[in-house]
Sequence to fold (613 residues):
Amino acid sequence: MNGAVESAMRPQGRSIEDRRAQIWACLQDVMDPELDESVTELNFVTRADVDAAGRVHIEFRLPTYWCAANFSFLMADDMRRAVSRLDWVKGVSVVLGEHMYADKINAGLAEGRSFQETFGAEADGDLDDLRQTFLVKAFQRRQVALLRHLIALGQSPEQIVGLTLAELGCLPLDDTGEKLVRRYLERRAVVGSARGDAAAFVDVKGARLSTDGLAGYLSGLRRVGINAEFNGALCRGLLAARFDLETPFVPRSKAMPASPGGEQVP
Amino acid sequence: MYRTAKGEEIFVIDGHTHFWDGSPANQKNVHGKQFIDCFYAYHSNLSPPSEKWEKEKFEKYDAKTMFDDLFVTGYDDMAILQPTYLTDFYKNGFNTTERNSAMKKSHPNRFILNGAFDPRDGSKGLEELHALSEKHKLKGVKLYTAEWRGESKGYKLTDKASYQYLEAAQKLGIKNIHVHKGPTIIPLNRDAFDVADIDDVATSFQDLNFIVEHCGLPRLDDFCWIATQETNVYAGLAVALPFIHSRPGYFAHVISELLFWVGEDKILYGSDYGIWTPKWLIDKFMAFEIPADVTKETGSVLSMEAKTKILGLNAARIYGIDVEAQKKKIRAGGGYAHLPEAVHAPR
Fold:
């Protein structure tokens, strides 16, 4: 990950291998909207390559033939957007394999159409609402994880609900804690102002949590986290069974360095 | 019949079983192949290795195999046959009421035969529901709100047509509406897993019971919230239960949430046979205890009483089964002949 960032900042030396690593680093930040886990960590991405002209080719697959078409489309679109941010990228193709709607989705993606345009009358056009629903769930899940961590460290409810976002960012925490803060902050803006002087911990309507209500609030949200973890386990298991993943899939960038004969986009 | 170490007899009603034909000969198209392949992935992923079937057996098993797996090797006393038509994917359908009725006919004391309807079938469908109900004396139906039907990619229970069908069901005495809200068939873009429509109809149809199959997974969180507000909403454990083997930690969390929100009187055991088999599911379930740290958090305890309700008494209540009378019938038919002697003795 850090290697990718460093090489991105180096003006020279943008070898194919460097670029490939940058692509994987971008894809790592693309989430399955329902599971709120990275598409690379979920083993969805099977290929990420680049040719000499800077054209990127990504292939991915999902745990079942029936995975919701809208989520599939969303992930593909997010992958394309994420990779397009790299300044050297001249084009991105994303291809979904072995799916009920693979042909339709792939054609839509290739032509740069929206989900609604791709599916026409069959789509309800409410993809944005759905995306928002899952962003809120992700916010809740990440918030609960962070709150639990802070409570376990001995922070009192008064201290926790009194924090501003700026103060949260400055808390001295270990690596786990820092990661939880980072993940939480990535979704904090979903529910309201994320300025430094805003309350760090708010509910989905943007209201600051109360000291007295914190325990009840946490137990109410517990089921959101459990649901997501359960789904994550199910999806990983189905993917492994479907593609007979005896050994974990190793992204090419993380495999043996300088392995010859790496495939490239023709 | 499950018998505890102390000799207590637990009457088991399996809330979710199928007698399907997913064989290549019956497949109409690639979707039919992918459908049974997907079921097989669920089976292979979550079954203990010793319980894993060959693909061929999984695609199509015969009536005797099913009977033995449920009632001889397994602990089921009775099983509810839930149909899954899928006539767009399979020449003769995947698991129709008609196909299931052969099982019921051979073993009338063992099976409860459920029907199905689809509100998109209009007035013709209503007539068919009347006929089906008359023929089989239905007490329950299984619905797939996410099922693909021509141009339509699913429906909601709140649709006007759904209301007409639910009204008809109520009149016909079909009290138990099993709704598949869970890993589903071809959800396109509508959020096919959404359980909000259950909330609405459960309020409107107080005399009906709504059993949310797979307890709303992958929307367990929303489902728990709804079920706690409605007295006639139940959780079917199929798909959640097999995690007891591969991910007992997750199962502990799920069952404790269900006990906390839904309550032990409204949870129904289901094997989802032939995806999983009752023997190992119930052995593990009976041996299962919620770990102390989870209980500390939720206050939920999976007591022997709760297990008894989940395994059979809850389903007996909503299906109007007199457990003692049913045991007598099964015993008289030799249904417990394979059990150790002590079990025969009436308590």
